[in-house]
Amino acid sequence: PAAARCAEAYYRRAHDLFTLSPVPFFLVVGDNDWTDCPNVHTGWNRFTRYFSRFDKRHWNHNLPVQEPTGNNLAKELRTNFYFVNKGTLFIGLNLVGGNVHNAAEWTSRLNKEWEWTRDLLWEHSRIMQPSIKAAIVFGHAFPTGNHVRFFQPFANFLRYKLPDLDVLYMHGDLHQYQVQHSYMNVPKLTRISLARSGWRQHPPMLIHVDPDREQGKSPFVFDR
Description:
The chain is an alpha/beta fold. The protein has helices at 8-18, 40-51, 54-58, 103-127, 148-160; strands at 81-85, 88-92, 134-138, 166-171, 178-180, 189-193, 206-209, 220-223.
C-alpha cells in the first residue's frame, strides 16, 4: 500500500483477495502497511480495520489462537497472536522494517515485543505440559541495527535458556529467498526470508514442521 500512498482501496483489495483463501489466513503488519505511509496513524488504522483478528472474522476454525491481554497493553501489540498446534508454538509479532517513524514508540514496542515473546517461549517450553518441541516466530523485518532491542536478547535467551528448542524466524522485507541456519550464532535458530509475492514467479511456500524428526535434523523442511 505505501507505493499507492496507503490509499484505502489497496487495503480493501488485499482484504478481499485474502478472504478467498480456503484455509485460515494470519497476517503481521509490514512497513508498507504502516510506518512508510505518509500518515502513520492513517496507515495503522487502516491495517487494523481490515486485518486485525483476520482469521477469527473470516474462518470458522478450531486453532486455539490467543492474543495479548492487559489493561495497559500498547496498541501496537494488539495485532499479535499465538497458538500451539501439534507441539509447535506459532507467534505473530509487530516487527516492521522501513522507517523508524517515532524513536520512542519504536524502542518501547521492541522491548514489549521481546518481553511478550520471552514469556511465551518460557511458559510453553518449561512450565506448561506437554511442552512444545519447536517454535515459529513471524515478523516483517529483516533484522538490522534498528531491531537490536528485540533480536539480541532473543538470541541470548535461546542460546543460554532454551538451547534445545528449535526456532524459526520467518520474515519478508528483503523480498528475496534466503535461509540462514545457526542464525546469530544460535545453533537451533533458523532465519528464513520469503521472496516477493507473485504466483508465477514465487508460488506460496510450504513449510513442513516435524518436531519428532530424528535427532540432529531440523524440524523445518521448506518446499518452494
